[in-house]
Amino acid sequence: MMEYKVKIDSFEGPLDxxxxxxxxxxxxxxxxxxxxITNQYLxxxxxxxxxxxxxxxxxxxxxxxxxxxxxxxxxxxxESDEEDFMDEEDPREELARRLLEYKRYKEAAEKLHExxxxxxxxxxxxxxxxxxxxxxxGPLHVSIFDxxxxxxKMTRRKKLAVPPKATVRREELSVEKRMHALKEKLRSAQSxxxxxxxxxxxxxxxxxxxxxxxxxxxxQNEIVVSQNGNFADLYVTAGGNDDEK
Length: 245
Prior knowledge:
Layout lengths: L13 H12 L8 H17 L6 H18 L8 H5 L3 H30 L23 H17 L14 H14 L4 E2 L9 H16 L3 E5 L6 E5 L7
Antiparallel strand pairs: 1-3, 2-3
Helix pairs in contact: 1-5, 2-3, 2-6, 7-8
């Protein structure tokens, strides 16, 4: 059994994932639907675990918090005689405060990063080594959460159109071999390739290997992933470093 563990340093924590979900679902940060946000969050965490990504414990702590919040939201309304219950603060309010504080911090950090980039244009220096940051200009920045979301949708579509099982066992792939095959496919392409078209198998292990290969190529700045708008499809092109002569 092939094992391949990856630690994704660009995960900024569970609050970053929650903000991503709030944006995707167009949710009011002051009125978070506990059931929906919990289900979506758990789907992402489950996908990370299936891919054997190194999920930090803080993601699991937040998952437990959201599950408790969801359970509370599903309970019937209590009468005023249960004062202790009614006096408890709605956990969604505390979560909203944390999200707003994190959002302000993140926006400030992004502003400082923009100022740093402007200053870098004056004094030449080598580019910063940043995971998953494309060196090509595009309409939207594609985050690791966008990639996980695309992988979720792709695997669901695969399950809806599963072909008959082949009787011949296919050769087991490695991440390194898949990376090489993907680079060759992208370099020979005349135009950007749809993310889903990089996955020509219906076998779970091969889908996982291909996805890990895509992540590793992004980490090495060998490919560029672009998106033209929220909820739009992802497209992949060869780009960045070219170590092969």
